[in-house]
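Ticket reopened. Same input as before:
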Amino acid sequence: MAQGAATVAPGLSSFLKSLRTTPVDPSVEHFTSLLKRRQIRNSRPCAIATVALLLRVVSEFKGRDAAKLVERIRQVGRRLISAQPRELVVGNMVRRVLGLVREVVDENLDAETNAASEGSHNQHSHHDSLTRPNLTSSISTFSPLKHAAAEPTDSNLSQSENMSESGELWRRPPLLTSHTSYAPASNAPLVHSLFGLFSQPETPSNSSTPTGHQSPDGKGMLTSLNLERLADLSRSKTTIDLRAEVMDGIRELQDELEQSDDLIAANALDHIHSNEIILTHTASTSVQKFLLAAARKRKFTVVHAETYPHDHTATHGILLTGKKRETQGDDEDDVWKPLTAAGIQVYAIPDSHVFAIMSRVNKVILATHTVLANGGLVAAAGAHMIAKAAKDHQTPVVVVSGVYKLSPVYPFDIEELIEYGDAGSVVPYEDGDFVEKVDVENPLYDYVPADLVDLYITNLGGHAPSYLYRIVADHYRSEDITL
Amino acid sequence: MSDPPASEAAPPAVPAPAEKKISPAELKKQKAAEKQARRAQQKAEPPAHQQQGPATKQKDSKQPPKDDRSRPLPVRRRASQSNVPVPKDVKKEPKKEVKQVGLFFSHLYSQPRQHSVVGASKDVHPAILALGLQYSSYVICGSTARMVAMLLAFKAVIESYQTPVGTSLARHLTSHHLSPQIDFLRSCRPLSISMGNAIRWLKDIIIKIDPSTPEAEAKREMLEEIDNFIRDRVTAAGQLISGYAVKKIEAGDVILTYGSSSIVEQSILRAHREGIPFSVIVVDSKPLFEGKQLSRKLANHGLKVRYYLITGASHAVKDATKVFLGAHAMMSNGRLYSRVGAALVSMLASSQSLPVIVLCESVKFTERVALDSIVGNEVAPAEELLSESEREALLPLKPLLPQSLRKGDEVEDTKPETGDVLKWIEGSENLQMLQVLYDVTPAEYIDMVITEYGSLPPSSVPVVHRLSTNT
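Engineering reply: fixed in the latest deploy. New output:
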């Protein structure tokens, strides 16, 4: 097992370090073993590691055949997923990267067809459910495809895009907004994530996407304008560097992972008012940053359930130091103060106290492991009873989650999503007599149904649980749902 | 009242040569006081328990108003006793209060728990002293067990009691002899509802004793009454309740219970003895882990037991078919006052449409009502929340701590001790740990209450309470 330093326990950081030097196949092996041993666990580390690995896979890919690249990524993805099927985030990331590749390919195709004949374009895209050219320009930062999709044929252009994107591309006016012809419900949030226009995963996409496309009114001009431009660009350079495009897209995905917490935190002031009492649980970086962002302006009180027995150490740690120790990968420069240092009163309570305290709580903020397409979520054990107690007290439940945790999976079999952990953390094995006679169970996750959640806050903004399926549709392509 | 503080304050002021002039008795007293002061300082918590004497007295007089009239003129002697160490405490208290701003339960923080016999009034019977410490360390835990243990200890107290000349047993025993015992027990841990009920009953018995009865006979009668009380209200009631409860257990059932209740345990074991095939899920929570003992006992009897912690409760509930809960008390508005977490379990169970059945002797019924778990509750020391192993797991965090918390330790950076973790938490200004012992389960989650009077809906609790107190 490649291991950075002798002192570093195998984990995300050691994996990332070794990834730089190790070739792809051993790295995949390494990652699967880390996943299997739970040495990389929880959504963020898994996502970071998966994306880094896929970046490497793409960069080492030889050849220009997109189909082969897709196959290669799928093959790696399948191995990773089977290594730890309950870290849905791994699958999410693989699907996002696959989507990237498809975008690039579609771009290319469209560009070619544009160059060849504009007349054939409509038919082509219609057939493929790929409405490339008119949409390219309106893709946002958040969708990793933006870059890959935007003016793919011109390397200079994409270069400049690349530089600007990390900063504030999302503020960029959605120029050439042919997407407005799209389902009206999607308008506001989709300004940020127009990816959906491309990826329309479910069956209706075929019919719905082209409608905008074919509509002759208003946008028609824009579309043709756009097409012209694209055609120009494609003419200048017909071959496309598939690999570079995809890699750029993956880097954007990495940026998204990095920034999602801050973007979520930017919403904090909209949701937390002064003197509120907020209940939360587990040691979640997203939640802590969210609360910290609000703490800069407002004073409120936090009640923190400690999530015994699997997350209590991290929880106490984050309360005391503001840092999560278990994720070795957490960058050292990414230091922030604990909530208490920001002048916020924090009460740590055992999980059993949730009901007793709930009558005083104004808002419940839950961290999550994975968000499912139906609006339900998988979160650390105890989340279900917290959400239920909140519901029974009419307390709003807010779930804070990056879009990368949003998974296209529907929970047909809930038990399948629940991981059971080490019984030794419930009853230590020294108590051999007890462990032998009694079945000790330690479920690590809870499934929280969508009706217990009032609001999701992602890096795209706030959403009702019932709306999540749209965001899923925006981020994953139907071809990739089953890997 | 003012006398003891004066004598306390005097010795340090007196110059060294003068010290010899103090009478031996006074010297002894002074030394005892000094020792006490030292011990009190060693202990992290403020020894405000001594203050409780007067504080709780006031409460006491509110609670059973009827025996105020039976109290002749007790004030002087008792006051002087319980007040001896007061002056020292006053100095320490403000320091503690800086941190103790408890948002939710600040009204409950008044009495720190007594963990030693130091400062106990000398009237307190040794059996009570021992019992009190068993209370405060949770050796005796559970409202029935505490009540029975208290009554048994009272038997010892009564046995060794001698009515002073000039008073009658009925008038003297309650107010002068039992009250200090009760105060001490209360300082160790607040009285349970069942204990309160039993004390009220006992005082009633004592008052009713005919002053003309000879002391020996009166004492014998009282002891007999206590035995009868335990037999009727606890043992026989337990038999009846478990009999009813067993009928609710059917073959193939999965009985879920929370924490540990003696009556639930009794019922489950009885059903098991009767040969009903069923299994049990025990849900437990930190820091007491009472369910561990229960699971161990049940498993030793050959039952199939599964053990979850409260975080896994929503999984546990899925597999269960019935929920049996013990009670600390049943409130008159039909709500269940029980170990904290019981409300969560019954909430989850009732959302799964599982029957939630509370097993409760009528001695635990109270006329008190409660709407939430915050107004009336028992706060337990927060340091109990972090077990030794948890503290150990936190030790590596030391280098990451904010500077303000670390500065004290930097000097002797030898090896970190688990006690340090508590100091960190204590030291960090805005961080507090919170522990209460009970919560209130809304009546709508409870489908049935089984008492020795039969099975009834929670709305019938006040009826049964009247029934049980009037007879």
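The mean pLDDT of chain B is 79. Residues 126 and 428 of chain B are 40 Å apart (CA to CA). Please confirm and we'll close it.
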